[in-house]
Design goal:
729 residues; Nucleotidyltransferase, domain 5; seven-stranded mixed beta sheet; 22 strands; binds adenosine-5'-triphosphate; binds pantothenoic acid; EC 2.7.1.33
Length: 729
């Protein structure tokens, strides 16, 4: 909220979340510039920064350390260009070569992952405002970091590696290779900078370096893949609040990792192939094992055997599968009996695909659904088992699994967890990461110096889930929204089409047996979501729009969620409250923008968007991370901003401020006439009375319709029985 009111609490009406707003809304643009651009046919240089030695070191399993060759921001001779009073003056960095990139890539065998940065609009003005607020309050976060973090957002996007041209088009359309659309230096006519460098990792950083030079005129600076995976994982585990979770028998549970107690751990990255890395510290790691039976195997073999056209299709197929028709179970061999002496139940799979040996069984006789499930189970279980053995080898108690093979898919995670749990007898814990597929790309992004990301802690980074903004895999889930207008019309269409556009793929629980312990690997509820990456990964705001309240003694320790919505009863209650309150909020929001037709349309779109989020969360409360009431309120606030409602309570605040100012002299006189002790008590009571005004409570809202807050305040001081009293002061 823009805090302008004199005397009342944040109009959430719910627990104060101690955050105040700093920045305007996210106005992400997916406008695509015309391709092709003027390319320069400069010589093909590919700067090698990864030395042979380092590559050898990682290949042979020696410890590897992060590269220190990083581009630096050269601030010498920096000067403001033009008018100092200007809202957003351009700062000239005369000695800076134009090679600061806002994009990093992980180009793997199957997928290209992009992490890119977009600057907040009006960032400079906000920074100034924030500084002046801090100066007034006598606090400063400035000492926390040695240099400022980039003010903006991190976005996550993926493409299939075979469609690298789509990826290049995307980079070009957003001018990411030139610092993004918001770059002050960018002009369509400007010549390409010969020195522009993009950090990239994965095999494709080597394979496609020339293509990047040819098509975008940029050089790829290669970062070691294992280093990047580890840097990305460490960053996520330290900086993102709800990053790691366990997934056992359909139950997802977020685990808050203590950054001081993170190491050592085993990182298992399941991409096309699988890498297992022992991580001892920041920048200290060793690839201890790997297996070539990984995500590529599932997708490759699965495609051949089922004729599926896409990975998603294959994964969804597995949902309807029954692996007992393909896998040979212990019971099949032992005449329906358990082999208890060695701990094998009859339902344990004795041999994956073992039933396919039967002479009267051809591929056509097998259901593609069953094949997909058997394959998924075989590969996931195998990876879980090898991971456990490596954890055992090095005495590691925690294994984090990443890579795009996982796809937040419940069955995959349950199977891996089961294998680790079963073989370690519960001693080793399998954990998953929400940004599973982006570890390498994030690590490559981290390798740019001076972005300040290294210093970010959990409470400083905020994740947001804008509507329809995910552009993933070269496929658009939700629209490629160019501007607010498109966003609104998309919401209108969304309503006409029902929920099919962004709603998760509804899937029946698989009736599968054969996991050797739990008969039916059920997932929560009746629905599963295979493509967890659609809405489950948001946009990371590096300078949050809702800033941590600067007077908090210890922001790390402050938990704004006084109500945990993992309790289903609470969840239902609050969802009802928020849904019922929605029309009233929309009225206020529309009024705050002058009640114009445009505001009404936006208000309508906001209501639909927020309702869609609520529906999504009702179905999978942990979809966006651990859900508490404060998160839900922040989501609502953010959603308002998406539709350009900067402060829904603006008009009310204005009215109240006027009313308050009108009576302030009388109130002060009244206070002045009191002796010291009753005066102090009245002040304390006044502050508390003002703070309990609760927009979420219908009683308060009804009361408010009958008068202004100041009247309510006066009345409450005189007549109303308060549900609290001041014991001591
Ligand atoms: N939309 C998709 N298209 C293709 N594969 C997908 C998709 N979604 C998930 N996958 C799975 O993710 C795997 C790729 O994962 P990831 O992107 O982490 O690895 P990679 O970097 O491509 O591979 P590597 O690191 O071995 O080079 C695929 O092999 C497949 O199993
Ligand atoms: C070759 C890489 C590292 C490329 O990402 C990956 O696919 C992998 O770890 N494959 C497994 C290779 C092996 O250790 O058998």
């Amino acid at each position: 909220m823009e805090s302008t009111a004199l005397c009342f609490a944040p109009p959430t009406g719910l627990p104060i979340n101690f955050k105040h707003s700093i920045n305007p809304i996210d106005t992400e643009s997916y406008g695509v510039a015309k391709w092709p651009l003027k390319f320069n046919n400069s010589e093909k240089v590919s700067k090698e920064t990864v030395t042979e030695e380092r590559e050898m070191a990682s290949a042979t399993g020696n410890s590897i350390h992060r590269s220190s060759s990083r581009p630096q921001l050269d601030l010498s001779g920096a000067a403001i260009q033009g008018n100092f009073e200007e809202r957003d003056p351009t700062i000239l960095l005369p000695n800076q070569s134009d090679d600061i990139s806002h994009l990093a890539l992980d180009i793997g065998g199957s997928l290209i992952k992009l992490v890119y940065f977009s600057r907040h609009e009006g960032q400079a003005a906000n920074d100034r405002r924030k500084k002046s607020v801090e100066a007034r309050l006598g606090v400063s976060n400035g000492t926390r970091r040695s240099y400022p973090i980039l003010g903006g957002r991190l976005h996550f996007v993926k493409f299939e590696t075979t469609k690298i041209n789509e990826c290049l088009d995307f980079i070009y359309s957003k001018q990411l290779h030139r610092g993004g659309m918001d770059s002050r230096h960018w002009h369509a006519e400007a010549p390409n900078n010969e020195n522009a460098v993009i950090k990239a990792t994965g095999g494709g950083a080597h394979k496609f370096a020339d293509l990047f030079k040819d098509r975008l005129g940029v050089s790829i600076e290669k970062e070691d893949e294992m280093d990047c995976l580890v840097a990305g994982a460490n960053f996520l585990l330290k900086a993102i609040r709800h990053e790691a979770f366990t997934h056992i028998e359909g139950q997802k549970e977020f685990v808050q990792i203590d950054p001081n107690d993170l190491f050592p751990y085993l990182l298992v990255n399941i991409g096309s192939g699988v890498s297992m890395i022992k991580v001892d510290d920041d920048g200290k790691c060793q690839r201890v094992s790997g297996t070539n039976v990984g995500g590529g195997t599932y997708w490759g073999l699965g495609r051949l055997l089922t004729k599926c056209k896409s990975f998603d299709e294959l994964l969804e197929l597995s949902q309807q599968g029954d692996n007992r028709t393909i896998d040979m179970l212990v019971g099949d061999i032992y005449g329906g009996m358990n082999y208890s002496k060695i701990g094998l139940s009859a339902s344990t799979i004795a041999s994956s695909f073992g039933k396919a040996i039967s002479e009267d069984k051809e591929l056509e006789d097998c259901r593609p659904e069953d094949i997909s499930l058997s394959l998924l189970r075989m590969i996931s279980y195998n990876i879980g088992q090898i991971s456990y053995l490596n954890a055992l080898r090095f005495g590691l108690k925690r294994i984090f699994f990443g890579g795009f093979f996982i796809r937040g898919h419940a069955y995959t995670m349950d199977t891996i967890s089961f294998a680790v749990h079963f073989w370690s007898k519960g001693e080793t814990q399998a954990m998953f990461l929400r940004h599973e597929g982006f570890l390498g790309a994030l690590g490559a992004f981290m390798s740019y110096d001076k972005h300040g990301l290294d210093d970010l802690m959990v409470h400083q980074l905020v994740e947001r889930f804008p509507m329809g903004a995910s552009y993933i895999g070269g496929k658009i889930h939700g629209p490629p929204l160019g501007n607010l207008n498109e966003k609104i019309s998309w919401m209108e269409k969304f309503v006409q089409k029902g929920t099919e556009i962004i709603a998760p793929v509804p899937m029946a629980p698989p009736g599968t047996t054969g996991l050797g312990g739990f008969e039916v690997p059920s997932s929560k509820g009746d629905t599963l979501r295979s493509d967890a990456s659609n809405l489950n990964i948001g946009v990371l705001h590096l300078v949050p729009t809702l800033e941590v309240f600067p007077l908090l003694a210890d922001p790390k320790m402050y938990e704004p969620n006084t109500i945990d919505l993992s309790d289903h009863g609470e969840l239902e209650y609050w969802f009802t409250v928020l849904s019922e309150h929605l029309p009233d909020l929309v009225d206020k929001a529309v009024a705050s923008e002058g009640g114009t037709d445009d505001a009404k349309r936006r208000g309508d779109a906001f209501a639909r968007a927020f309702s869609a989020h609520l529906a999504r969360l009702m179905e999978e409360p942990a979809a966006y991370g651990k859900l508490g009431l404060a998160n839900l309120l922040e989501l609502r606030e953010e959603c308002l901003r998406e539709f350009n409602f900067i402060d829904a309570y603006r008009t009310i605040k204005q009215r109240e401020n006027e009313a308050s100012l009108a009576v302030l002299p009388d109130l002060l006189m009244e206070l002045d006439s009191m002796s010291e002790e009753p005066r102090l008590l009245t002040l304390i009571e006044g502050v508390l009375a003002a703070n309990i005004f609760d927009w979420g409570s219908r009683a308060c809202v009804d009361l408010y319709h009958k008068g202004t807050i100041i009247e309510i305040y006066r009345m409450s001081r005189k007549k109303m029985q308060r549900p609290w009293r001041v014991d001591d002061f």
